[in-house]
Structures are given as C-alpha cells and as structure tokens.
Amino acid sequence: MPSHSHRGRFITFEGLDGCGKSTQLERLAAALRKHGCHVVETREPGGTATGDKIRKLLLDTGTSDLSSLAELALMFASRAQHIKEVVQPALAEGRVVLCDRFTDSTEAYQGGGRKLGSEPVLALHHILCSDLQPDLTILMDSDVAHSVERARRRNSRTAGSSRGKPDENRFEQESRAFFGRVRQAYLAIAVREPDRVAVVDARGTPAETHARILEVVRRRLKLAARTA
Ligand code: TYD
Q: The pTM is what?
C-alpha cells in the first residue's frame, strides 16, 4: 500500500481523559487561524457520521461485555472512515488538521489499558490506515488521579447532573490501575518516537499549557511563528 504524502499538517492531541485536551485543541486552532492557517478540528472515535455511530456504541455504558478485540476493531473502523472522509482530503488541500486522539490512543488504551499490547495496534494501523503518521503529536501529560477526577466532574456537570449521578463514559468507569497503564503506554510511545511526539506538562493552568503547546508547534512545525 502506498504511504501517505500530503501538503498539509497533521497534528494530534493525546492524553488521559480529563487532561484538558479538547480545550487546548480549540485554543491552538484559534491561534493558528489568527496566523492565517486553514484549520480543521476533528476527533476520534467519530469525526464522521458513521464514526459518530461507532463512537456512541463505544462510549455507551450500556454496551456491556464488549470484548477487548471488538473494541480495538471498532476504534479502527471509525479511524479508517475518518481518514478517508476527513483527514486525507483536508491534508491533500493543504489544511492543518487538529485531531483529538488518534492511533496512539488505541495503543495506550487498548494496547496498554486492556493489555492487548502494541503489536496488534501497529499491525492494524499498517493495514487499515496505511501507516498514516501525524507530523506532530502533543502528548498532554497529567496525573492519573487528577485527570480522571476532572473527567468525572465534567461529565456529571454536562449529562448526569439532573439525576444527581455522574454520567461516565465506558472508559471513565475503569480503575486507577487501568489509567496507570494507559499513561505508561503513552510515555513509552514518546520515548520510542521522540521526533513525532512532544510531551507537554498539562498540570499547570490552561494558559500555561497553551503557551507550552504554541512553543512546541512553533519550534517543530514552524507554524504560528509569533506566540499570540
Ligand atoms: P472522549 O469523551 O472523547 O474522551 P476525552 O474527552 O477524554 O478524549 O472519549 C473518548 C474515549 O475513548 C476516551 O476514554 C479514550 C477512548 N479511546 C480509546 O480507548 N481508544 C481509542 O483509540 C480512542 C480514539 C479513544
């Protein structure tokens, strides 16, 4: 299969649930637009009509007894569709694609968290995604306890508050040990691929984290030459 080549820039955001990824992605998008970049914001699982259906199934706490391999396959089904329908066309047009989670999430959550290991994840990425690699991955590193607590608070505010019960997604119900494995798997990817993955400390204020991310993007991709 041919490897992907493109004119645009593909930047992915990774990290534990509740580390503040979505906020930082939005802030970077705004900063890049200010500098005249054509930015596409998207996310996984989801990002397409078909992918959003898969996302619902994957995150729904009512989806019981899903096997780890079925979960892995669904993540990649959503991703294959997303690449074909959104990511690849945007990159071909020279846009900057900011994606909330990509294959590193699968390696961290299904490979590490679910203990499937990296090998099946990388094999499927090769077969189903033609090894498409981000130009830059921002790995937002944070404490396990802090991130998961934040994700739970966020969800209880948005969805479950009227019933007085947090509405966690299927992953946020997982144990501290699960998220510890996810974090370790993420850090191992960063060690393996230092040219692609930049680890950014996400424990400060949103403004501090934003400044760190802008600096990384400026230095590594020569985008957003002046910090806004
Ligand atoms: P989401 O609500 O988007 O979480 P967050 O805002 O924290 O990113 O839910 C996505 C969930 O799906 C999250 O818990 C991580 C999980 N996930 C995987 O387990 N594997 C994957 O490949 C992807 C893309 C996400």
A: 0.92
Question: What stretch of H or E contains 147?
Answer: helix 144-155
Ligand 1 atom at shortest distance from the alpha carbon of 100? 8
CATH topology of domain 4-221: Rossmann fold (3.40.50)
Q: Is 40 helix (H, G, I), strand (E, B) or coil?
A: strand
Residue with the smallest CA separation from ligand 1 atom 22 is 106
Domain boundaries, the chain: 4-221
Q: Coil, strand or helix: which one is 12?
A: strand
Q: In ligand 1, which atom is closest to the CA atom of 18?
A: 7
What the block records as the tokens of 143 is 């404490």
| Residues lining ligand 1, Cβ inside 6 A | 17, 21-22, 44-45, 59, 75, 100-101, 105-106, 109-110, 151, 169, 171
Q: What is the spatial distance between Cα 107 and Cα 121, in angstroms, rounded to a whole number? A: 6
CB-based contact 184:112 (threshold 8 Å) = yes
- What residues in the chain have per-residue pLDDT under 50? 1-3, 160-165, 227-228
Q: How far is the CA of 225 from the centre of ligand 1 (A)?
A: 31
For residue 170, the ligand 1 atom closest to its alpha carbon is: 14
Amino acid at 71: E
* Residues ≥6 apart with Cβ < 8 Å to 224: 31, 32, 35, 37, 214, 217, 218
pLDDT at residue 226 in the model: 52
